[in-house]
Amino acid sequence: MNTTTTHGTADAATTRGTAGELTGYERLRADAAAGRIEEVIVAVPDLQGRLQGSRLSVPYFLDEVAGDGFGACVYLLASDVEMDTGPGYAIDAWKSGFGDFVLRPDASTLRTVLPWDDGTALVIADAHWPGGGPVEVAPRHVLRSQLDRLAERGLTAFAGTELEFLIFQGSYRSAWESRYQGLSTGTAYNVDYSLQGLGEIEPVVRRIRREMGRAGLAMETARGECHPGQYEIVFRYAEAMSTCDNHVFFKNAAKQIAAQEGVALTFMPKFDEGEGNSCHIHLSLRATDGTPVLADEAADDGMSELMRHFVAGQLACLPDFALLMAPNINSYKRLQPGAFAPTGITWGRDNRTCPVRVVGAGSSLRIEHRVPGGDANPYLVTAAAVAAGLHGIEQRLELPAPHRENALADPSVPRLPATLTEALHRWETSEIAAKVFGEAVVTHYAQAARTELASFETSVTDWERMRGFERL
């Protein structure tokens, strides 16, 4: 994938495939002329990893926006999940009068087939200031900055994400109106790896699988998971930026398809006391010529020296970077003892009780980050993992022995931040974070966490009513 920002005219951002096949914006123009495409969605990933944007006519997009960009309000990258904004972010929307930045489409992300949205194409854009510079705190730019640091060392990151979600009978509207109480799960019981018991959810998950393939995502595996109604779809790994683009595209599309099928699905890390929704991130490195660099067949453990430093960096930075992997109050409900999600800071070979799992061999050798949940912003998680690995490489950190037993039950393992408050403190006081991400990024995402905490602390929950309405 081309990770540079698109500039210039629409024609400059297109290529021609083999045997004269039209690609990119040329294909879009041809599809529009044939009546197959009527609109183009220009979208930017926000702080929560959601796609936000506008629908444009194809002629307007091709003739003006593809080259010059499209204006969108700056608060899109300085607001919480409710779209509320305020002071404290690196972008102060009120102070700037809610002005615009410029969304510059990345032509390499163009998708002209959205089976659930007939006649529509979609392209992901990068946020730039009117003067031309990138918006430093935009999630895609945060990741690109770390990938550029890798490139300076002649390295490229490849990633894959494993997203879990829960399916419920009934629509999103009915779930909202019931305040998400009394919902019926899509399956009646644990269907982990099961080939039965999936009949009630198969229509929607089959449609998601099929239409993701038609939209260009290459599925690898799909199966039921532990929580009733839980399912996981894994798509083929790719260059890190492409994987993150695919990830946010998939989440957005899956919800739209579910709504059309009259059901609701959620990626939230912890819906109830049952198993949570994880988002495990697989990450590997290659040289610029495509050669894998993490494996060393001559080493006793099969790991190169570079990989040992890279994994050591993950452990060193996990407490400080936890905020980027677990950004919400609910994230930490999943990261609790007994939830089969990591609670400590350690690593192991094919050990799912560790937050950093080394898996595979030879060219498939990679790390798996098991901390992120379904709410994680993939750009920020991947940026954190790359930055942590680079820290380990630059400092030549020594890797401790792998954890060979149950790390969840070992009291000697150092603890991950247990709450968003603790993660926020580690993040905004971290010398490493300030060095590798910069003051603006640290301040911006600290404010995002502070806003989340303030909203929660002023809310009265059902838990409080149940405990206190009569008995206190």
Written overview of the protein:
- This protein has helices at residues 24-33, 58-68, 139-152, 172-177, 202-214, 240-260, 305-325, 331-334, 378-395, 420-428, 431-437, 439-457, 462-468, and strands at residues 39-45, 51-57, 70-73, 100-105, 120-128, 155-169, 184-185, 219-224, 230-235, 238-239, 264-266, 279-287, 347-349, 356-359, 366-369.
- A hairpin with a 5-residue loop joins strand 8 (219-224) and strand 9 (230-235).
- It has 472 residues and is an alpha+beta fold.
- The chain folds into two domains: 11-135, Roll (Ubiquitin-like (UB roll)), CATH 3.10.20; 147-466, Glutamine synthetase/guanido kinase, catalytic domain (Creatine Kinase, Chain A, domain 2), CATH 3.30.590.10.
- The strands form two sheets. Strands 6, 7, 8, 9, 10, 11, 12, 13, 14 and 15 form a ten-stranded mixed beta sheet that branches. Strands 2-1-5-4-3 form a five-stranded mixed beta sheet.
- Helix 3 packs parallel to helix 9 (378-395), helix 5 (202-214) crosses helix 6 and helix 7 crosses helix 9 (378-395).
- The model is unreliable at 1-20 (pLDDT under 50).
- 34% of the residues lie in helices and 18% in strands.
- It is globular, with a radius of gyration of 22 Å.
How do the strands and helices of this protein lay out in sequence?
Layout: H1 24-33, E1 39-45, E2 51-57, H2 58-68, E3 70-73, E4 100-105, E5 120-128, H3 139-152, E6 155-169, H4 172-177, E7 184-185, H5 202-214, E8 219-224, E9 230-235, E10 238-239, H6 240-260, E11 264-266, E12 279-287, H7 305-325, H8 331-334, E13 347-349, E14 356-359, E15 366-369, H9 378-395, H10 420-428, H11 431-437, H12 439-457, H13 462-468
Parallel strand pairs: 1-5, 13-14
Antiparallel strand pairs: 1-2, 3-4, 4-5, 6-7, 6-9, 6-10, 6-11, 6-12, 8-9, 12-15, 14-15
